Amino acid sequence: MNHKITIADRRLLTILLIVFVQMVGASMVHPILPLYAQNEFAMTPQAITLLLTAFFGAQFIAAPFIGRWSDRRGRLPVLIVSQIGTVAAFLMLGFAQSVAMLFFARVLDGVTGGNMVVALAYVTDIMPESKRTQALGYVMASFGLGFVVGPAMGGLLASQFGPQMPFVVAAAAAFATVALTWFTLEETLSPETQARNRDAASARMSPAALLRNVPLTAVLVVTFVGRFGFGLLIGTFALFAEALLFAGYDFADVSLRVGLLLMLVGIGQFFTQIALLPAALRRYNDTVIALLGAVSRAIALFILALAALPVFAALSMILFAIGSGLLMPALQSLVTKTVSPALRGAILGLHQSVMNLAVILSTAVSGALFALDPNLPNWLGAILYSLSLAPGIFLWLWVRNNQLNEGAGLAASS
Asked: Cβ distance 209 to 410 under 8 Å?
């Protein structure tokens, strides 16, 4: 059957392209920044992981406000402003003259890093609930495809042109997303909707209302536990690779090989969104898919911890990517179904902040754990992913007995 592309589909395609271009830029930085900080600024592993903490700390504070701002003032202006901040942050990283400048750039990128939250809110605006998980899966596929290109490109650029070049190219990629947004997207929230979101009692959140929302609390617990394990991995993976996987290699070789390993994450995520997630959605609900994702991530980190060899690291990255590709769209879809439409941006911002809080705490301790034993973060991450199955099973049981209703979650604050 031929499928006619609708207006919503065209906007979705534009969002996917924006996410892809931005992830190419951002993922070029990931394999380079820890080694760049270590070799150019003589930073210790503990200080390097605090660079990640600074980014996620700033995003933790800013994400709910940015999401709420987009509910009240529109998706488009918030998306553009946040993307411009990303451009500035990448340029500051590339031309930094001090450790303080590195930290300032990471904080700026974190504060304006709500563009992904707004992009996800945009997708939920234009897609019906029945298609939301798959649409968010396409966003993850675009994310993964960008991760295929970006790390390898970053490693190649660093090895051939020096460690500053990936940051400059990443800034150019981020600037391209500003142009895409400005010229191709239209606002999804009418002025009347924005005004209603600013004024409606249903568009307010309180801590008590959050705690009363049982499915939302369960989703956030699964998110936090799983994301803590993720933070342990990303906080030390480049250093782990240099110490164990590629011991004795020089900076250029380590950068290239780490980039290629991370490229496998992108390939695995893209394959998952295109093939595995659609198949899973035909048979299972979001909670079961989230559980499958957590299991895949746990197995991945157990493999990495047990066998510190490049071939097993490659297998681990693929399984980790499959787990991410199943887990993240399911959780994002579930969290939007627990609140009223007026709170979509805000609740996605809160979801992002919970993820960031987990990464703040995990990256803050990952350097110290790595100093004790380079494999310790992997072991702890594997155990935590296993533990995340408990609240996931509770959520599955709750959803089975209490069908989620759109807008039935958060009541107005009293």
From this structure: yes
Which CATH number is 227's domain given?
Answer: 1.20.1250.20
Q: What span, in angstroms and rounded, lies between the C-alpha atoms of 375 and 394?
A: 31
Examine residue 255 and state whether it is found in any structural domain, yes or no: yes
Q: Number of structural domains, the chain?
A: 1
Does residue 28 form part of some domain?
A: yes
Sign of CA dihedral 28, 31, 32, 33: positive
Of 107, 101, 360, the residue nearest 235 (C-alpha): 360
Terminal Cα-to-Cα distance of the chain (whole angstroms) = 51
Task: Find the domain containing 69 and state its range.
Answer: 7-185+206-401
> CA-based angle 336:193:10, to the nearest 5?
65
Q: Is residue 318 part of a domain?
A: yes
Please check whether residue 193 lies inside any domain of the structure.
no
C-alpha 353/C-alpha 114 separation (Å) is: 10
Over its length of 414 residues, how does the chain's per-residue pLDDT go in tens digits? 343 444 457 788 888 888 887 777 777 776 678 888 888 888 887 788 788 778 878 877 887 778 777 777 788 888 888 888 888 988 998 898 899 999 999 889 888 766 777 888 888 888 877 777 778 778 877 776 777 777 778 878 888 888 888 888 888 888 888 888 888 888 877 777 666 666 654 445 566 666 777 778 888 888 898 888 888 887 788 888 888 888 888 877 887 888 788 778 878 877 887 888 888 888 888 888 989 998 998 899 899 888 778 889 899 999 998 998 888 888 888 887 777 777 777 777 788 788 878 878 887 788 889 889 988 998 998 898 888 888 788 778 777 776 544 344 443 333
